[in-house]
Specification:
The complex is a heterodimer of chains A (304) and B (246).
Chain A lengths: L33 E12 L2 E13 L4 E5 L6 H9 L6 E6 L2 E2 L7 E4 L11 H6 L8 H14 L15 H13 L5 E5 L7 H17 L3 E5 L3 H7 L2 E5 L12 E6 L11 H13 L18 E4 L3
Parallel strand pairs in A: 3-8, 3-9, 6-7, 7-8
Antiparallel strand pairs in A: 1-2, 1-4, 4-5, 9-10, 10-11
Chain B lengths: L1 H21 L11 H13 L3 H32 L1 H15 L3 H12 L3 H25 L3 H9 L4 H38 L5 H11 L2 H33 L1
Classes of the chains: A alpha/beta (304), B mainly alpha (246).
């Protein structure tokens, strides 16, 4: 799946989580996966060329949740923008379901760190913005109503974004992204601006939604715990700034063990957390040696 | 309540005006009393002229305002939304904007004669710039995050403009229009002072030559009232629009 790694089974866990919305629309067929081949992105700056991403080979399996972590400047947001079609790779190819990407794609949807709701529209109308072109009026209204219910905003449908809390706005933003019934859902630090408690609730909400409508999800986050709680796999990117010209962006891939919903206090996750934080250059002051990762998880290292 | 508070100062001025003229503190040939001004109005109404003067002035202002605003909005869209349009048009427009209104008059009269066209064109020039400047700046400063979100959801070109860019600048469009309307009245007087046979500006000019201070004051009061009235109408529209779009 990654580089020269042998294809270990990454069949997504689609068993519904407890508390799943029972009347959720079932997904039509398997969602498409995403495949990146030797993707690079560089920007021209005053001092010449600055590589943000280099030599990235990644495959997101259908229905898989993949988290991307890395130090600031490692290009994790750039990666998301590339897959969203908001930016183009300097070299390499991105494919969704086998077709190469040429711009924004109706099969993908994005939710950003900021809700980015239109302030002059009610939450309901904001969610409706995400509906695919050509959705019928009644069908669209029905879908929006269902999504607002899914994210717990049915009572706030008629409110404007400035009249609701940050958490509610973010849920509306998520509902808008889901309105497209995306096969690939891209989340750019979606819960980063929320308070700690709301963030935990949103994580569970996302997992419930994924269980009900399993799409392929790429979530960029700076929160290692969040990555381990949500994802099937965690990609650790390295910043290319201090690296040689041969270094590649992908530093480490962690297959997260166990099935969702995960125990936040799980011992294996705690060890993986230390492991990932070390990869990010953070000292964790742990007394036990952190290098002994659990045997149930697989970590693939990609030295630069 | 606010209406009452706003009426306090005009009433004081009116009272002071009445007192200084009735006591002949100021001679009547310099400042006629309020009643004399009312008489002047009555006299003009009797001759059927006042309504005509007002009507022609209002018509010029509205026509010039509408034409100037529409062109202003169109050019603002070009300059505000396209980098090429900005680079090509903005320097020229900035230079034209620096030309004082009266400087246009001789040219407009030569080109368009002393008819309605020259006056309406001058007023349209006056109305164009406030709309153009505010709306172009607003379009350039739309939150790029919102535009990007719109692109993510498949909005392009006209649908992007209609769904995101236009609603985002509605408040600026309205304030640009209000400025343009005020400017239209300003340019009306400039146009009518110089070459006209009708209108409030004509009354001003004509009365200056005849020494009719009462009619000058009448024209000034009428300009103040008409300007406030049209501004108030736009203000109501603004309130409605802002409740919907801001």
């Amino acid at each position: 799946m990654i580089g020269d790694m042998t294809s270990t089974a990454t069949a997504p866990d689609l068993s519904p989580a407890p508390g799943t919305d029972a009347d959720a629309t079932p997904a039509r067929g398997r969602p498409n996966g995403v495949r990146l081949d030797q993707v690079a992105r560089s920007f021209d700056i005053a001092q010449g060329r600055h590589d943000v991403l280099r030599g990235l080979d990644v495959e997101l399996g259908s229905g898989e949740i993949v988290a991307v972590v890395g130090p600031s400047g490692c290009g994790k947001s750039t990666l998301l923008r590339l897959i969203a079609g908001l930016d183009r790779p300097s070299s390499g190819v991105i494919r969704i379901g086998g077709t190469a990407l040429t711009g924004t794609d109706p099969r993908t949807a994005v939710a950003f760190q900021e809700p980015r709701l239109l302030p002059w529209r009610t939450l309901e109308k904001n969610v409706a913005l995400g509906l695919p072109r050509g959705t019928g009026r009644t069908e669209g209204r029905e879908r929006v109503r269902h999504l607002l219910q899914l994210v717990g905003l049915e009572h706030a449908a008629e409110l404007r974004p400035r009249e609701v809390s940050g958490g509610m706005a973010q849920r509306a933003s998520l509902a808008r992204a889901l309105a497209r019934s995306p096969e690939v859902l891209l989340l750019d630090e979606p819960f980063g601006a929320l308070d700690a408690l709301t963030r935990l609730r949103m994580q569970d909400l996302l997992l419930e939604i994924h269980a009900a409508e399993p799409t392929t999800i790429l979530v960029v986050t700076h929160d290692v715990e969040e990555a381990l709680y949500l994802a099937d796999r965690v990609l650790l990117l390295r910043s290319l700034r201090e690296e040689g010209p041969e270094a590649r962006s992908l530093a480490r891939v962690v297959d997260v063990p166990g099935t969702r919903p995960r125990d936040r206090a799980d011992h294996t996750l705690a060890e993986l957390r230390v492991h990932l934080l070390e990869g990010l250059g953070v000292t964790t002051h742990q007394t036990t040696t952190a290098s002994t990762t659990s045997t149930t998880s697989t970590t693939t290292e990609f030295p630069s | 309540m606010r209406l009452a508070a706003g009426a306090v100062l005009p009433l004081i001025i009116l009272a002071a005006w009445q007192i200084v003229t009735a006591t002949e503190l100021v001679p009547a040939y310099r400042l006629p009393g309020p009643l004399t001004v009312l008489q002047a109005a009555a006299e003009l109404i009797e001759r059927g002229e006042l309504g005509l003067h007002i009507a022609i002035s209002v018509q010029r202002v509205l026509l010039g305002f509408v034409i100037g605003s529409v062109i202003g909005l169109a050019v603002a869209a070009i300059v505000g939304l396209s980098r090429a349009g900005d680079a090509l048009l903005n320097p020229t427009l900035a230079a034209l904007r620096a030309v004082p209104s009266l400087a246009w008059v001789p040219l407009l009269i030569l080109w368009l004669q002393i008819g309605e066209e020259s006056k309406i064109t001058l007023i349209a020039i006056g109305a164009f710039f406030p709309v153009f400047t505010t709306v172009a700046a607003a379009l350039r400063h739309i939150d790029p995050h919102l535009v990007e979100a719109g692109r993510c959801f498949g909005l392009r070109g006209w649908s992007l403009f209609r769904t995101i860019q236009l609603p985002a600048v509605v408040p600026s469009v309205v304030s640009g229009l209000r400025l343009a309307l005020a400017q239209a009245w300003l340019f009306l007087v400039a146009a009518e002072l110089i070459a006209s046979s009708m209108g409030l500006g004509f009354i001003l000019n004509d009365s200056q030559q005849n020494g009719r201070v009462d009619r000058i004051l009448l024209a000034i009061v009428l300009l103040a009232l008409l300007g406030s009235l049209t501004n108030a109408v736009l203000g109501l529209a603004e309130k409605k629009l802002l409740r919907r779009w801001a």
